[in-house]
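re the bet — no i am not wrong, look at it urself. input seq straight from the record:
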Amino acid sequence: MKRILPTLALTLAASPALAHLDPNEHGSVMAGLSHPVFGLDHILAMVAVGLWAVSLGGRAIVALPAAFVGAMILGYFAAVAGVPLPFVEPMILVSVFALGLALAFAFRLPVWAAATAVGFFGLFHGHAHGGELGSAGALAFGIGFAISTALLHAFGVVVAIMAGRALRGANILRGLGVLTALGGLWVVVAG
């Protein structure tokens, strides 16, 4: 009984977890800023874009994040306008796995091909965000999650640059790719 009462009290006192900030309480920009960081699948994909961009080097460092954010914004406004896009959630999971494999196997695609691939995935991520707009203002929410996404890409870029300076930096990036792909599989199994 001594164990049951504290557990019961904590259970009754617990409030439901919110997956995203309420735009009515926190504002549309803050809801948008926080939105990508509440989903492991989004975090893994967006950081992986920055990691892969650095592993490709040169213009890819700017081109891949820009392609992802640009296509994500298109997907977002398509969802807000009510334009359907099939297989949104499965493609988000595929994006995590594919980007992880691109890192793990050090895929060396031309910049235009890599940017096209991440842009394709960005379209689905954006559509998912637009489908979860709720009561948020569309423009403010979109600005918020575009900024947050760009910051996650930048984080991936910084991590990859730091890894590149380390001994066996290429192996570190490949290891991060394996972890990203495994994280994508975990999201599938846990979801």
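see?? Residues 28-190 form one domain. told u. also The two ends are 34 Å apart (CA to CA). so pay up
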